[in-house]
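Protocol step 4 of 5: obtain the predicted structure for the target chain.
Materials: sequence only (see below). No template structures provided, no constraints applied. The aim of this step is simply to have a reference model before the mutagenesis design in step 5. Sequence pasted as it appears in the construct record:
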Amino acid sequence: MYSLHIGSADSDRSMPTRSAWFWSLMLVLLVAAAIRLPTLTWRSLDFDEGASLHFSSLPYTELITHFADLGLDRHPRLYSVLLKAWRQIGGDADVMLRLPSALAGMLTVAIVYQLGRRRLGEATAGFAALLIALNPLVIYQNQDARMYALALLFSVLAVWALWNALYNPRSHLGPKLGVFSAALALAAYMHAIAATLFPVLGLMLLVELFRRRRAAVWGLGALAASAAVYAPYLVNIIRTGNTGSGVATVDDWVRTTLGATQTLLDFQSTASSPIHRALLLGLLAAIVVVGVWRGRRQGAMVALWFLPVLALTILASLRMNFFQTKIYVFSAVPLALLTSLACLGRSRKLDWRGTLPALAMLSLVLYSLSFQWRAGNQREDLRSAARFVGDHAAENDTVVLHLAWSQYVFGHYYPDPFVHPFANNVDSATPVGDRLAPFLDSEVVWLVQVGVGIPGTQGDPDRVVQGWLAERYPVVTEVFPNGVDVRGYATRYRFSSLPETATRLEVDYPNELNLVGYRLTDRDLPTRDLWLHPPSTWVPVALYWSASRPLSGDIRISILLEDEQGNVWGGNMPREKDLRAFYPPLHWQPGEIVRWDFDVNANPDIRPGEYKVVLRVYEIESGAALAHAEGGDWLILDRVRLR
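Step 4 output (C-alpha cells):
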C-alpha cells in the first residue's frame, strides 16, 4: 500500500519517485499554461480592469499616502503599486497587463501541488492541482488585470508555509514562519477577502497547539505580526462599516449560499434553476463530508480552511454590496483539495463514495470550462466598441461615453478624443440638453453606453441620455458588444453641400430626385458577427439625397446584398427611428442635401465571397421601382467582401 510520511520522507524517496512527481507537476503546469496563455487577450479589458489602469496611473506618492484609504478605492493599494511598476517595464498592451495574473495562477497550481504532496499524498496533490489548473473561476481571475490572482497566490503560499512550519518544524522554523507572516499580509493587502485567513489560520494554530506546541506558539506570534501590519486597513474597514442593504435575512443567506455554490462548482454555466443549485449544494456537502472522512485529520484541517473562508466570504458579500462573485475564488483551492481527498484519500485508493462526487465535480469543471471563451460570456466588450467607433466616426463627429467610469478602458482602446459629460448617476432631473449642447453641431454623435442599467443611485437605469437623443435625432446605426451599447445619432442630417466623407455620385430619378453621394465604411467583413450583433453581419450605408423641387410622392429605399447571379443574401432593416420619423421625404426642401442611413443585415448563412450593394427606390403609392436616368431601376452602389 502506498503511504506518505511527513517530514523527512522526501529524503528517503528514490530518484525515480522524485522524477515522477517532478514530471507530474510539469505536466499539470503545462496544462495550466496551455489554457491560460493563448487566450490571455481573448476578451476585452472590462470596467474593473479599467480601475486597475486608473489607480496604477496615479503617482507613487498618492498611492502610498492613501495606501489604506477606502475613500480613494474600496480595495487596498498594493496591487496598484505593483501594476504601476510592471507597466513601466512591460507597457500597456493587454497581454502585458494580464501576464502577472497568469503567471501568478501558474505558480498557484505549483504551490497547491507542493502543499498537497507533503500532507495528502502525491496522487491526491496532483489531482487537486489539476482541478485548479482547469477551474474556470480560477482561470477567469488568472486572465484578469486585477488583484485576485496575486491575492490567491499569496493566500496559498501562506497556508503552505504555515503547514510546513507545523508539520515539519525541525528545520528552518523561523524562515517558514517569516514567509507565512509576509505572505498573509501581502494577500490581505491585495484583497480584503484574503483577510478571512487571519481567523481561519488562527483557529488551525489553536487546534494544533497541544500537539505541536512550539511551532503553534511561534505560528500565533507570526500571525499576530501579520495582523499588526494589516491593522491600519482593518481599522478603515470597520470605520467604513456596512455598505449593504441592512441586516441579512435567512432568505438572503440561502440565496447567496446557493449562488456561491454555483460559482464554485458551475461557474459561467447558464443553468440557474433552484433545483440545479440545490443539487450543486448537495454535491458540495458530499465532497466535504467524504473528503473529511477519507482524509481523516488532514481532511478535517482542509475543511477547517474551506468552510470558514466560504462562510465569511458569503457574509462579506451580504454586508458589502460592491463585492462580486469572483471573491469566491479564495475558496477554490481547499475545495479542490477536499475533492481530491474524497476521490483518492491519502492512500491513493479509489472509493466509489468519494469517486462519484469527484467525477461529478470534474465533469462540472470541464462543462463550465466550455463556456469560458464563448462570445457573450465576457463582461464589457469595450475593445469591440472602440474599434467600431474608430472605424465609423468621422473627423467632425463626437464620441460621447456614458457612464464616465468607463473612460479608462475606453481610452485604452480608443486613442482619439471623446467626451464624458455625465456623472455616474443620471435621472430625469439631469440637464441632458445643456450637457450635450456643445457637441450637437457634429454630424453624428456616437453614444457609447456602459453600465447604464445599474439600478439605484448609480447608472442611468431609465436611459435618460439615450432617450433625449432618440427623441430628436435619427439613428445612424447601432451595435451591441457584450455589456456595451453603441448608437450613432445624426445630429446633422441636412447640409448645404456634400460632406467630404461621402463618395460623390450623380444619379437622377424622376421628380427631380437626385442621389448625390453615399458612405460605405465597411467593405471587408466576416460572414458572421459574434461580437457586435450576433449572429449576423451588418453593413451600415449612408445615402445623401437632394431634390430640385418638393417631391410629389413619397418614396421608400431598398438596399440588398446580391451575389453575381442576383441571389439576395441580405437587406436593409426597418427602423422606427430613422430619418423618416424626423424629416420625411415629402418635407425635403429644394437645394439641400439630406442624409438617410440604413443597416443592411446579411443572412447568417451567407457564404464567403464578393457581394453587390444594390439600391432600389420605390414609389410608395404605386409600389413601383423608380428608374434612374440611365434606364435601370437598380443601382450597384458598391461591393463588399465577406470572409
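Step 4 remarks: The first strand starts at residue 398 and ends at 402. The radius of gyration is 31 Å.
Proceed to step 5.
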